[in-house]
Amino acid sequence: MGGHPCFASEGEPPPPIKIQYNNGFKFTSGDGTFSLRLYAALQGRFTVTDFDQRVAGNQEDVANFFIRRARLWWDGHAFSPKFTYYFHLQLEPTSAVNLHDAWVQYAFSEAFKVGVGRNKIPYGAEFLASAFALNFIDRSIMYGETDISAGSGSIWPGGGTAPLLLSGENPNTGFPTGGLSLFRSQGVSLSGRKPLGKDPVVAWEVGVWNGRNSRGLSNPDSKLLTAARLSFFPLGSFDISTQGDLEGERRWRLAALASWYRDGGRHLRDATGQQVEPYQTRDSGTNLALLARGAGASLDLEWGVERYLMRRAEPGQWQFEREGWRASLGYFVVPRRLEVVARSARLERLRHPSREAALRSGLGLARIEHNGMIITAVEEFLREATLGLNLYFGHGYQHKVFVDASHLQRAFLDEGQGRPAPQRDRRLRSMLQFRF
After folding, report:
1. Full-prediction pTM beyond 0.85?
2. Which domain holds residue 176?
C-alpha cells in the first residue's frame, strides 16, 4: 500500500524538513505539502495622561507601565498549499488567555476562497490592519482605542458616560458605545482577488457572523451579522494590513475600500437594566477609505457612519446614528528607519445628540464642572490630534520604538444655559515593540 507523500515507506529515509526563519520560525515538509510557522510579539508601553479635572471621576492623573499586547501565532498550510490555517493567542496579563483568531481557509483559486472559524470581520480599514504593523502606537479614537485604562477597561472619557472601548456595546440596549469597529466573531466568509489588466486589481470579502464583537460566545438569538468589503487597487495591489511605506518605492500605490454591514437582535432589558417588553434592534453601517503609499510617505483617509434602530412601543426617539473619520500622514525622514507621523480623528457616538437620545441609547450623560457646579451634560463629539516619531530597527515592522503626544477633546451641547467648556486631556506615550 502507498503511504501519504509526507511519510516515507518502510526502509526509506524520511523526507527532509526545511527549517528557516521568515518573520517567524518556519518548518516545511520536504515535498511542500505541510508547513508551520511559529512567531510571537510583545508591546511594552508607558503612558502619562493629564486629565481635565473638571470631569467627575477624572481628578487623578495616570502614569502607567503595562504590557499592551503579548501574542503568539501559528500559521501555515496542511496537505496542500491551498488549505491554510491561522491561529492567534492573546496572552497579555490584563486579559484572560484567549484564542483571538482560529481560521481555516481553502483556496479554489486566487479569485475564490472559502474560510470558516473566528477572526476579524472584514469591515473598514484601520482595525483590519495588524496591531503590530501600525505606524502609530495604537489605532485612532474612530476605532475606540485611547490607551487610557483602569484595570482591563478604558476609563476615557470618564465622567458618567460609557467608556470608549474598541467595540463596546450597552449591555441592555445593545447600542454600540465604542468605536466604529465590528471586532471579531465566528462565521464563514468568501473572498478573492482578480487582476483587471496589467496593474489594476479588485479584491472582495463577504461573510456571515454571529454578531458584532461576539468573542467566543454562542449566538444568543437567530439574528446574524452580514458584512462585505470591496477593495480596488488602480496601480497594483499592496498589503493594506500594514501602515506606512517601509518599502519606499518611488512609484505610488493606491487603494480605495468600501465596506458595509447589517446586524440585529432581540432585547429583554432597557438601559437601566429593567425588564421590558421584548424589542428588536437593527444596526447597519457604511465605511469608505482611501490609502496611498509611495516614496516613503503614506496617507490614510477613512470615514464611517452607523445607524441603530430600536423597535419600541413607547413614543419618542428610538433611532440613533453615529459617525467618525480619521486622517493620518506618515513620512520616513530616514528611509526604513525614522518616521514622523500625524493624525487627526473625530467620533460622534451620537449624531444629532440630545439628552433623551443619550439616556435611551445607553450612552449616558457626562458629569462636568460648569460655572462652579457639577452638572450633567450631553456629549457632542470626541476629537483626537496626535504627533509621533517611530524608530525601526531590523526586520521591517517587527522591532521598533514609538513616542507620541496627543490632545484629546470632548465637546458638549449647549442646552440653553451656556455651553460647558470642552473637556481637554493630554497624553504622552512611548512603546517598545519586539516581534520574533
Report:
1. yes
2. 36-74+99-435
